[in-house]
What we know:
Number of helices of chain A: 4
CATH architecture of the largest domain in chain A: 3 Solenoid
Radius of gyration of chain A: 27 Å
Oligomer: homotrimer
Mean pLDDT of chain A: 95
CATH topology of the largest domain in chain A: UDP N-Acetylglucosamine Acyltransferase, domain 1
Amino acid sequence: MATLKELAEAVGGTVVGEENVEIRNVAPIEVAAEGDITFIANPKYASWLARTGASAVIMAGEGHGSDKPLLLTPNPYLAFAKILGLLRGQRPEPRGILPGARVAPTANVAEGATVHPGCVIAEGCSVGSGTILHPGVVVYENAIIGEDCIVHAGAIVREGCRLGNRVIVQPNAVIGSDGFGFAPDGGKYFKIPQVGTVVIEDDVEIGAATCIDRATLGTTRIRRGTKIDNLVQIAHNVEVGEDTIIVSQVGISGSTRIGRHCTFGGQVGIAGHLTIGDNVMIGARGGVAGDLKGDQVLSGVPVMPHKEWLKASMSFAKLPEMRKEIGRLRRQLEELEMHIKKG
Amino acid sequence: MATLKELAEAVGGTVVGEENVEIRNVAPIEVAAEGDITFIANPKYASWLARTGASAVIMAGEGHGSDKPLLLTPNPYLAFAKILGLLRGQRPEPRGILPGARVAPTANVAEGATVHPGCVIAEGCSVGSGTILHPGVVVYENAIIGEDCIVHAGAIVREGCRLGNRVIVQPNAVIGSDGFGFAPDGGKYFKIPQVGTVVIEDDVEIGAATCIDRATLGTTRIRRGTKIDNLVQIAHNVEVGEDTIIVSQVGISGSTRIGRHCTFGGQVGIAGHLTIGDNVMIGARGGVAGDLKGDQVLSGVPVMPHKEWLKASMSFAKLPEMRKEIGRLRRQLEELEMHIKKG
Amino acid sequence: MATLKELAEAVGGTVVGEENVEIRNVAPIEVAAEGDITFIANPKYASWLARTGASAVIMAGEGHGSDKPLLLTPNPYLAFAKILGLLRGQRPEPRGILPGARVAPTANVAEGATVHPGCVIAEGCSVGSGTILHPGVVVYENAIIGEDCIVHAGAIVREGCRLGNRVIVQPNAVIGSDGFGFAPDGGKYFKIPQVGTVVIEDDVEIGAATCIDRATLGTTRIRRGTKIDNLVQIAHNVEVGEDTIIVSQVGISGSTRIGRHCTFGGQVGIAGHLTIGDNVMIGARGGVAGDLKGDQVLSGVPVMPHKEWLKASMSFAKLPEMRKEIGRLRRQLEELEMHIKKG
């Protein structure tokens, strides 16, 4: 619980109206009731300001003359996220190594960490202060997990991989699985040992059941601040730049380098050994087969400018009619030629 | 083991021929032998009736004059499924909390439940009678699992999520992972705490490694009877209606509402904040970018009526030839114009 | 550490130059330093031969007059893979059943096996010599795991499934989850018990979070030497031939039979009840809706010869322009007809 004034101070906003109103919770504008704070990030919800049951509203601008207590800030969505964390996201107290966790003698678990039952931490590992390993997390030899990380149940971090600070790993994610590399040997395939590692930098989030393969040699790297959704495949030796958003079920093939501040929609596929520039947005299901310069918005297979793709997609359903019309034109033209030659 | 008569009574069918024949197993018609019952659900297998080695055959209709013992029922496939369960699908006796499972003091595990080694059940949880938690299942605080559920090994149920009765969760599925929500903060992203939950209603099945994200606020909900295959992504705040079939590798983006009795083929992708009506079938790999009314059969990207899509797909390979033909028509037409003007 | 001579003998190559040079590691040609061996498998890297800091180079041909110690072999990439294994891939000594593993009384774990903490092995299972089960692996009743397998953390092998020898299973893979089969019962669905199993033959690799469903009746089978990447879905009753490569996020629907020595690119989808011949290559994202004869290179949806697909894909972006041009042709042709009729 906090007063509106306290929340405004915490997020750097200003209060209009009663600043001592007590806020216990955050709720969507349609269902918010007394004690809730809500937010208007999209102007289409502005008409709700007069109707919402919330005790206060986070919004941009000047409040449009309402007598509802307001928290004004240029980025209401960000303020909402921060206030939600303040009111609901308290981190539990560190609890140390709990009974039923197995930590190898040479592993170093910092005092402020929490290691839940069913975790197995191998020789030579390091787990930083403030980090929580939920039940069933497995950390192979010599892996390093930084400070204030949250590694959810069933996630696996294989040998020698490194997580920075404040990394969040959702349940059953896999970091450091073998890259998919085989040398043809006649008609058979010989496994290429995958002896590299994975480095996950600070403030990265890895989604549930997402797989990030270790490098053959060297490092698969996810740079600071990048957020990866569920069921994503990152192949060996890939590098992803800072602050990039990768939505669910995307696949990135081996050795491709992704720039910073990119956004890839769901189910996008990117071929191997490519270089993708900074600030590239690829719409859901886009397929990338070649290098891409930065600062583009693309869609389709292979990707093209998003607007071109929208038009081409619209035309796709017309293909059968186009074929018929081409046939009609052909016949009419030939009749006309015959007519002229006869004439 | 059962007699044909007993099986017919169990599934509500009628016997033609020897009703005391003993049935020990179910087998496909091509390989069935003495002691097996088999079924004909598809008329193209009717000719097998005279040839099969099975001791009895489940089928619709009147038996076509065979002297093979028959179990007649209007829905042979359903009867096959039920008989398979009767003969092979016995549930094991409940075994309680087995050694090597860790159940928090305030968790409530019903007497008729089975909790296998390696499970971790946190404070405030509840597990209903008849439910089986296979090894390595992790249940976070205050989650509720109903009666007669089967939760397979490695599945994770996060804090506050609820499963109804008779829910089946395949191995390594994840229920209640954080939704993928971030507020832009300059060029960086600030994590929006995901404080909602997931509700899985009665008789739902969740496939292996499928991920169902918790809501930001409120509830991600899978309604009664819906069946979800492996490696499916259900994002935060999605609602899926009753008796819907979602095949493997489908992705459904945040806040989308799906109707009842829909069927989505493999690898379908559905954008966020959409409303899909009841009885919508979407063919494999379909991509949905807008709201859809009910009672449609669709395919393609973006989806169109399935029959249109079939025709358009056929035409796709003809595109290069169509372009050439358009070029030829252009040249011929211009020659003709020249000819006429000269003439 | 080994001498170049020893490595050449191990992989069946010949040395040109100093054969006693000591090799400690393998490195990419751009970063290799003293003590490293590197390789040239692609002629475009040939110019690096004079520049690399490596102590020796694996390559085909005759060495192009360099004085760098060379290991000549017709298949440098294969020799690289083998040498990497020799220098870096040592298997750890077997350690038996470690504290914190739970092995049922009737399970048979061979003496040379290693079972890590957190593993649960059920009644009637068998684990062969040389096999390593990493932490948190769960093996259900009567499953059989052969010799010299590596089963990584969190992988699940369900009841009655069988793994051959030298099988590698990456973390959180699922073998033997229920097939996705339901009999319609009015508007609801009745679960068809999935009482078959999965057989994984020798030398197969299964990727992280990949799911291989058990058969309804009978067997889902992955034949010898096949390599499957991460997040792949193999449905019930599928059979995959020998030495086939299945890249990440591929989905194969139920009862489909795949030939030997096929290669499927990332995110390929294959419908159910199909037969795919030997030596079929399908490019990334290809969609297969019908049977395919062997010895083809295909792409697209539905698949077509890869070269046709490349051309058709190029034309896709031209669709709006093609529609316009067809309209222009129509108008010009009609004007011409009018002109002639008037004239």
